[in-house]
Amino acid sequence: MPIPAGFSTPNRLSAKQRAFQQLQEWIIDGTLRPGEKLNDAELAGALGVSRTPVREALQLLNAEGFVEMNPGVSTQVTEVDGEDITKILPPLAALQSLASELVATTIAPEQIEELRRLNAEFGEALGKGDTAYALKLDEEFHGAIVELTENSYISNTISMFQAHVRRLFFHNSIILTQDSIEDHELLLQAFERGDREEARLISRRNWLRAVDIYHAKSISRL
């Protein structure tokens, strides 16, 4: 079980939180490969924590679908199924579009301009082919909108879905396109008009486009 060295995690987090975040990151980016069996003692040594927070972190990852625990047998990383995009993105699109609708009439002009700056940087990253950085900026863009709802129920649920989106991206099931740049700008224009319904529709379309692209690729391979 290869484990990277030299990584760092924020000291302000508890041992369980640090273990959870790092293990989730390794699963998302493929450092811990699909189907790989996990040894809690090895993980604890690599993370510099005891086995208890690692076990607690693995239980959380099991609940979120990143690992599969078979007590007394093994714990292993779950396989990646590209078809899961059709299960993950529709509910995520519903929550993200709700967030856009909720903030459409309260978002401040300076907050819109910050989102416009992020979108410009997102477009530059896509233009350079730096899709990993583009994904990070896309998350920041939508995450800033979600944060403005000041609704932890929405943000916590979206966070879990978003982690699976990142994993599908790293395993080539989700593709970012230039169309998102225009979607983002149209969303910002809806915010400027205070148009809640248009903001909801644009956000939903933006998130569901990846499903259409995935299906189109699947058909082309037949």
UniProtKB/TrEMBL annotation:
<protein>
    <submittedName>
        <fullName>GntR family transcriptional regulator</fullName>
    </submittedName>
</protein>
